[in-house]
């Protein structure tokens, strides 16, 4: 497990409890712990009845379901399998003729501060027109469309348009490399790519289209017939004749009215790639019906969204958080939300606070890594401290992506929330589709650093290696014992890997293994996530497989003989990537070592994306191995942290390499 001992200690002494104010409880959708417990009891008493009720309340079905859970082919569970719906109609059409029709759906703030607003009605028209443009390019129900877009209204429109015609989207984060785009386009069999000429981040114009060109030129992507290019800036882009069209060209003459295509509840709404402990990223396949149910319900419960709220989730649409809490959940809930193109530190580290004041944001959802970096900035420059802005519109704060340390929690609570706003520390994963463990703002007493209790119906537990429940206070593996509607359906094209990764035989083959360690508190049974128990790192809330980075390093065949990657704690990014490398030439020192380290960092950034750039690179003549040749990762983790080696090293062939590997470049 990756949590540092000091972090664990500071959480263990955590005994502050923050109950919600009476006022918050009174106004909330789930009002008080009794209401929460009543829902849990309902799910316990009549599991299928509970989910069926929520499915009817949250989803507009074009054909009602008669079946709830089908576990006949477990762990390939099906939910509401004979029901039909359309996800885009569930976000847009449902609001027509209601008060929401002319409400602002999206307040878009560009990198340079320019603001654009669209109402639900306008958004529906834009999605309809775009959906017709996709149809005109021959995209049909069941086809896969790869989206490589900046944070823009157009990015949301592109996803919604795919959903509208029953095409399955696969969004690739705009920070990923050409290689990553190519691998995903091949794996998912994309027929069309939606991208932008450039993206604007922190005042810089960064290319997207040319990366798509590079990816498609690498070969293997012959399924891609068309590339649609959103002209975000006026900078020209290179057109491949017969393949590329600008948005303006594709949209010309298209009608804004596009009837939503009814799909089966199990129809794949999207495939989103995420890192696992082995091999290439996995294409996590989600359903339409079960996903939409939980995306909407959790948006309403966890964020307690009310008519007047202005919601802002800072996640990029390239991640699951952007899928569920930008593109689908808030729209299905009829909320007004902020979509932000830029970065939190441009033009200065007060940007988030300035935007909260400007748009009167009332529910704000971000990642611990952003909070920690803004704490650092505020500490060194008083002018970007949140106290300089009027944040009184805020009523609920959220956190996602990694454990939030109690110190950061307290700062967020005091300096952003004015000691008035509950913080919902939401634990979940790409595979879960939506929230799993989280406080409810009008019910749950909060404990800093704890994601508290599972949502009603989520059968979360902490178990040992044999699958037996552990008592409170004992650390073990986090599992989900019963299926839930928004769960991963399979790994795209690899059902065997799906079974092995998430429903291991050792646990009986029916229990979902999250891959995280957890412990429940002695007093309240509250969950605390202690970090991944597999070889997945969490850097700034981004999942990275150590194997992926190792493969990228050894792919530099002219230079690298062997590489091992581990994580080490980092104050701002949570974890940092530390790579131990054996070169095909004598071990470098001094300036040469620094130069090669830089070359390798840039290489990894090109192979995977800048987020995978190793922070530390260390060179050795060898890696520490057991007699059977297995790399001793425990030793590497100690070295990465700068700890003295206390483990038994008698089995090492060459203990001197430990001194080499302790040296940083
Ligand atoms: C981690 C992001 C502690 C965890 C939604 C999980 C968290 C991985 C929390 C999933 C949290 C996410 N507290 N850890 N509140 N939220 N994690 O798939 O290790 O990008 O397994 O989904 O992030 O990352 P993913």
UniProtKB/TrEMBL annotation:
List modified residues, type N6-acetyllysine. 630
Similarity comment: family membership: Belongs to the ATP-dependent AMP-binding enzyme family.
The alphabetized UniProt keywords are: Acetylation, ATP-binding, Ligase, Magnesium, Metal-binding, Nucleotide-binding
**What is the protein name stated in its UniProt record?**
Acetyl-coenzyme A synthetase
User: Which of this chain's residues are annotated to bind Mg(2+)?
Assistant: 554, 560
Q: Which residues bind CoA?
A: 201-204, 321, 540
Cofactors per UniProt? Mg(2+)
Q: How is it modified after translation?
A: Acetylated. Deacetylation by the SIR2-homolog deacetylase activates the enzyme.
Q: Give the EC number.
A: 6.2.1.1
GO molecular function terms noted in the UniProt entry: acetate-CoA ligase activity; AMP binding; ATP binding; metal ion binding
Please name the GO terms of the biological process aspect recorded for this protein, alphabetically: acetyl-CoA biosynthetic process from acetate
Acetyl-coenzyme A synthetase N-terminal domain location is: 36-91
The role this protein plays is: Catalyzes the conversion of acetate into acetyl-CoA (AcCoA), an essential intermediate at the junction of anabolic and catabolic pathways. AcsA undergoes a two-step reaction. In the first half reaction, AcsA combines acetate with ATP to form acetyl-adenylate (AcAMP) intermediate. In the second half reaction, it can then transfer the acetyl group from AcAMP to the sulfhydryl group of CoA, forming the product AcCoA.
| Class of this enzyme | ligase
Q: Locate the AMP-dependent synthetase/ligase domain: which residues? A: 101-484
Could you say which residues bind ATP here? 401-403, 425-430, 516, 532, 543
Q: Which organism is it from?
A: Melaminivora alkalimesophila
Provide the AMP-binding enzyme C-terminal domain boundaries: 548-630
* Substrates-to-products reaction catalysed: acetate + ATP + CoA = acetyl-CoA + AMP + diphosphate
